[in-house]
Amino acid sequence: MKTQETQNTKHIALVVGSTGMAGSNLAAKLIQTGWEVYGLSRSAKNDSKGVTSIAADLLDPEQLTEALKNISPTHVFFTTWMRTDTEQENIRVNSALVRNLLNALSAKKSVQHVALVTGLKHYLGPFEAYAKEGNFPETPLREEQPRLELDNFYYAQEDEVYDAAARDGFTWSIHRPHTLIGYAVGNLMNLGTTLAIYASICKEKGVPLVWPGSEAQWSGLSDVTDAQILAEQLLWAATTPKAQNEAFNIVNGDTFRWKWLWQKIADYFEIEVDGFNGSMRPLDERLSVQTETWKKMAAQHNLVESDLNRIASAWHTDLDLGRPIEVMTDMARSRKLGFTGYQSTVESFYDLFDKLREERLIP
Fold first, then answer.
1. Closest CA to 170 of 5, 337, 339
2. Angstrom distance (rounded) from CA 13 to CA 197
3. Is residue 52 located within the same domain as residue 201?
4. Which of 29, 38, 121, 198 is labelled catalytic?
5. Do the Cβ atoms of 9 and 74 come closer than 8 Å?
6. Are 322 and 267 in contact (CB under 8 A)?
7. DSSP secondary structure, 178-205, as one string
């Protein structure tokens, strides 16, 4: 196994999913630390300064091989996935994404390390089986907890990495963030942006910020993952020999209760709070009837995106905030190995909101 790079080896990163939230923040971090960075996505569009863009369809092996023919990365960071209608289809498609990429790079013999970003569905189960009644995992969630006896595309992606590592001799790391919070150029589908859109609409209409989720999430302990803290851990694991061939949880390092953070979000937007009232009030239902309101707000405030459906992902936010248990993670494994990254969660949200205003995505 290639457990240590030779001195003065040039770091050449291939960030797969480079226009997404995880990938774009990672690419920026790598550029800052002197890496040569290639960004792979389905389109050549990439607003990250210093990143060389590659356009390829991960489900087209021939196109992928052609796109990568002149690139020999030392490190691969896989940060993307595709959502389909069933978990069986998720498994088929998302395992192919990883397999096709690693097959395309295999003959080059350049890859020293592969990092795969998954998430807490590793412990909670896939979307359609999300923490079903009577099948709750023990929290805090720990890396050594066994896989669930459920179909899960995260497991399939991991297995593709393990198989390719055994074949090609590279090391690997798996990274399991909780809900990602951060800014992404060209990809704004995330809880933080969705809540910013919702709070902006509430302020415009003069109504309170209604809690959409469960009592367990409202009152229980939780944590989230800033996209920049994830980038820090990805870089750390890729360059720290003792962190190789390990799976890591990754969160900001603090904990909170949503009833506290909900008030902080409302304070930022200068609106009132309507907390948990005994039943769930899904955000998807509340935002689905606000498309015309948002269109008018975009015109009034000169916003850059008038299509609510392109910048808000209420379905995913409802899944996170509707969980019937509190969800928090343990980071002992990476802490013991020397990872010390920390980020204040309320500052993660405020920094994102400031950036969204700066980019004229919210008023």
1. 5
2. 34
3. no
4. 121
5. yes
6. no
7. SSEE---TT---SHHHHHHHHHHHHHHH
Domain end: 177, 211, 235, which one? 177
Same domain, 146 and 16: yes
Instruction: Provide the pLDDT for residue 4.
Output: 40
> Are residue 124 and residue 209 in the same domain, yes or no?
no
Q: What's the pLDDT tens digit per position in 256-300?
A: 999 999 999 999 999 999 999 999 999 999 999 999 999 999 999
Residue 25 belongs to some domain of the structure: yes
- Provide the pairing of β-strand 256-257 with 171-177: unpaired
Q: Are residues 269 and 163 in the same domain?
A: no
Q: Where are the beta strands (DSSP E) in the chain?
A: 12-16, 36-41, 51-55, 75-78, 113-117, 171-177, 180-181, 209-210, 221-222, 225-226, 246-250, 256-257, 273-274
Q: Is 93 helix (H, G, I), strand (E, B) or coil?
A: helix
Token pair of 91 as six digits: 């498994």
Question: Does residue 58 sit in helix, strand or coil?
Answer: coil
Active site residue 121: yes
Kindly state whether residue 287 falls inside one of the protein's structural domains. Answer: yes
Give me the number of domains the chain comprises.
2
Determine which one of 38, 154, 183, 198 is catalytic. Answer: 154
The parts of the chain modelled with pLDDT lower than 50 are 1-8
Same domain for 133 and 210?
no
Going by C-alpha positions, the residue among 313, 295, 302, 260 that lies closest to residue 127 is 313
Asked if 154 is an active-site residue, the reply is yes
% the chain with pLDDT above 90: 84
Domain with 74 in it: 12-177
Is residue 239 assigned to a domain?
no
